[in-house]
Amino acid sequence: MEILEKKLASDFGIVFDNKSLLQTAFTHTSYANEHRFLNISHNERLEFLGDAVLQLVTSRYLFERYPEKPEGDLSKMRSMIVREESLAGFSRDCGFEEHIKLGKGEEKSGGRNRETILGDLFEAFLGALYLDKGLDTVEKFLDQVMISKVEAGEYERVKDYKTALQEELQVKGTVLIEYRIVAEDGPAHEKVFDVVVSVDGKNLSQGRGKSKKLAEQDAAKNALAQLGRG
Question: What are the residue boundaries of the RNase III domain, all occurrences included (predicted)?
Answer without folding.
Answer: 5-134
